[in-house]
Design a protein that fits this description.
The complex is a heterodimer of chains A (263) and B (358).
Chain A (H helix, E strand, L loop, with lengths): L1 E5 L2 E3 L8 E2 L6 E2 L5 E3 L1 H17 L2 E7 L5 H10 L3 E5 L9 H15 L4 E5 L10 H9 L3 E10 L3 E8 L2 E8 L2 E5 L11 H7 L4 E4 L19 E6 L8 E2 L4 H14 L4
Parallel strand pairs in A: 1-6, 1-8, 6-7, 7-13, 8-12, 9-12
Antiparallel strand pairs in A: 2-5, 3-4, 9-10, 10-11
Chain B lengths: L7 E4 L12 E4 L6 E5 L8 H17 L5 E7 L6 H6 L4 E6 L8 H15 L3 E5 L2 H14 L3 E2 L4 E4 L5 E7 L4 E6 L6 E5 L15 E4 L10 E8 L12 E5 L9 H10 L3 E4 L1 H5 L21 E5 L5 H4 L7 E6 L12 E4 L2 H15 L1
Parallel strand pairs in B: 3-4, 3-6, 4-5, 5-12, 6-11, 7-11, 14-15, 14-16, 16-17, 17-18
Antiparallel strand pairs in B: 1-2, 8-9, 9-10
Classes of the chains: A alpha/beta (263), B alpha/beta (358).
Chain lengths: 263, 358
């Protein structure tokens, strides 16, 4: 079973409250924040690696990122993936989700035949939850997101997809694309041996010349969505201090709640 | 106000898988009207969709041209929901009613909604960011080769007529404007609780039947559908929400918060660390950019530090009161009232005070 896993390096979400917006340049500053594998992508890797352990085959990691992200990809190889494809070209910069999924799909097609493509349901940074389904569309494969359970006999997968009012189980003949949630598994940790081995594994780099995405949807120019200004959310309120004994404080809080229409 | 500049746009790609893409160009002004995907949940239209009808009407009024609000119903035996949609602001209902659409599948629902959009050429499509909508919207955007802004926190129409979507990034720490200048439709997904539904006002309207070929995958099968029974009051229905953050310290303390919420006739919410720690198991209780957005009359935060991820989801609340022993907790800056104290001293006093007044 050959499995492709899409992995996104992101600024560590533990530090998002430190991200600042420069009031002059209107760009965000993430300096000092470490880069890690987006949380759900570790669940995607775990899902792929455990399927490979059961059915044989290989797990290939696909990352569209600048070359500086190599260390993050080594983490994915360290978990147990077999080979990596870094998809990196200036022409890809500024790609929105439609362009990103177009490029990832082209890289996956170029790298060989895959039975299953696994992604995290969403990334920590943008959290759009769009690339997984759009990858399915570009690849022309059936796709399911919000996956909380994954089983496979090697030629089909059985998944449970969480819905707002319950869940739906699907059985899908491969190939297919799935987006997994935290519930699907518990990712293994990377140990030193894993990292040492990772450095010996095939590490491929694809540039724009190596793959054939739909040329109309590549990079910022080929992205239907265009970024405008950014801002910090306006949430300031009067922040009036309530002081006193616990009883006095409680009385004041309940007064305010009643005033707000809570009975 | 119309956009003066004429631009070429891509629309109506038949199918991505064939890669035989029929790009054709039309003038941007030929796209009009606002289409809302009306999601049907447990025997009713999702509240999220009704809220979007309200938002669509707000946008329509700003546009102030002769555009109208179309609700797209997709499913089996769904036409009965049309009166609800008219009552909440749909001018027209397009119904794709087919036994093939009995249970949601991304392939068939994607084809169905893309088919409706290709026929009706809406300028804007609004989809609720439910589990279903969050998968359907990108599917349809990819089929149509157009742009989608996910989990918008606000929609605006600028003075020059440009439709602008505001999206959160980095867990809500940053808000970014998104434009879709050269592609139509402009698709936005929006979570429940962000926009407001109109007051229900029964009215008549036209229901148009729609159908198109549904090219699905034979190798994909639905094997089971499970419905959840609601055990607690939904956060979006509650007037008062008592929220516990990581500062409550342990699972055992949670029951006090439940008692407090119940005395106030409200519901309990939590932050992401509380859910991750397993102190609360109900995922729907998590408020924030990756959970639900709420706008209760009153929000009472207990041991909530106020990470952007969370505050992004509470900013539209009526009254915000926070209790935290850390005087530097960021939650205080976005609170109307703050209490700098150990909540373990305050919550029992609150419970006593409310009991006294009952």
């Amino acid at each position: 079973m050959n499995i492709a896993v899409c992995v996104k390096p992101v600024p560590d979400s533990k530090y998002y409250d430190q991200i600042k917006i420069d009031p002059v340049t209107k760009t965000w500053d993430r300096s000092g924040i470490p880069t890690v594998i987006s949380d759900l992508d570790k669940h995607a890797l775990e899902a792929a690696i455990s399927l490979k352990e059961k059915h044989g085959g290989k797990v290939a990691v696909f990352t569209m990122a600048p070359p500086t992200m190599k260390d993050t990809i080594l983490q994915a190889l360290g978990m147990g993936a077999d080979e990596a494809y870094l998809i990196s070209d200036r022409a890809f910069a500024g790609s929105d989700t439609l362009a990103t999924s177009n490029i990832l799909a082209a890289a996956i097609r170029k790298a060989g035949d895959f039975d299953l493509v696994v992604t995290g349901n969403e990334s920590d940074d943008g959290s759009t939850a769009q690339v997984s389904a759009q990858l399915g569309e570009w690849l022309g494969m059936p796709h399911v997101m919000n996956v909380t359970r994954l089983e496979s006999d090697g030629s089909t997968i059985a998944v449970t997809a969480k819905q707002d009012g319950g869940s739906i189980d699907y059985e899908i003949g491969l190939p297919a694309v799935i987006g997994v949630t935290r519930k699907v598994n518990k990712p293994r940790l990377v140990n030193i041996m894993g990292i040492l081995k990772a450095k010996q594994k095939p590490f491929n780099v694809f540039t724009a010349n190596d793959i054939e995405p739909d040329p109309n949807f590549v990079g910022l120019k080929g992205s239907p969505t265009q970024p405008g200004g950014i801002a910090s959310p306006e949430m300031g309120r009067k922040s009036e201090l309530i002081e006193g004994t616990p009883e006095e404080i409680a009385k004041r809080i309940v007064d305010e709640l009643y005033k707000a229409g809570i009975k | 106000m119309e956009i003066q500049e004429k631009k070429n746009i891509y629309i109506g790609v038949q199918s991505v898988e064939t890669r035989d893409i029929r790009d054709f160009f039309m003038e941007i002004n030929s796209y009009k009207n606002i289409l809302v995907f009306a999601e049907v949940g447990e025997d009713k239209v999702c509240d999220n969709s009704l809220e979007l009808l309200g938002e669509a009407n707000r946008l329509k009024n700003i546009r102030n041209n002769d555009s109208f609000v179309i609700a797209a119903l997709v499913g089996h035996n769904v036409k009965k929901y049309a009166p609800t949609l008219f009552g909440y602001g749909a001018d027209k209902v397009v119904a794709f009613d087919s036994p093939m659409l009995e249970v949601y599948r991304s392939d068939l629902y994607g084809e169905a909604l893309a088919g409706i959009v290709r026929t009706y050429h809406p300028e804007i499509v609004l989809v609720g960011a439910t589990a279903l909508g969050s998968e359907l919207a990108p599917t349809v955007a990819a089929k149509l080769r157009t742009g989608l802004a996910a989990h918008c926190t606000a929609l605006k129409i600028l003075e020059n007529g440009q439709f602008t979507q505001v999206v959160p990034a980095f867990g809500g720490k940053v808000l970014g404007d998104i434009y879709i200048p050269n592609h139509r439709p402009q698709i936005a997904s929006i979570k429940a609780g962000i926009t407001k539904k109109l007051d229900y006002a029964p009215k008549d309207g036209v229901v148009e039947d729609f159908s198109c070929e549904l090219k699905g995958f034979d190798r994909m099968k639905v094997t089971k559908v499970e419905k959840e029974t609601e055990t607690c009051k939904s956060l979006n229905e509650a007037d008062c929400i008592v929220v516990g953050g990581f500062g409550i310290g342990s699972k055992e303390e949670w029951s006090k918060l439940e008692e407090l919420a119940s005395l106030l006739g409200g519901a309990n919410g939590c932050t992401r660390p509380v859910l991750d720690a397993g102190w609360v198991s109900n995922e729907k209780a998590m408020i924030g950019t990756s959970g639900v957005a709420v706008r209760p009359k009153a929000y009472l935060g207990i041991g909530v530090s106020g990470a952007a991820h969370h505050t992004c989801g509470i900013k539209d609340s009526g009254l915000i009161i926070s209790i935290n022993k850390d005087e530097n907790a960021p939650i205080f800056a976005c609170s109307d009232y703050k209490v700098v104290a150990d909540y373990k001293k305050i919550v029992p006093a609150l419970i006593e005070e409310i009991k006294k007044r009952h």
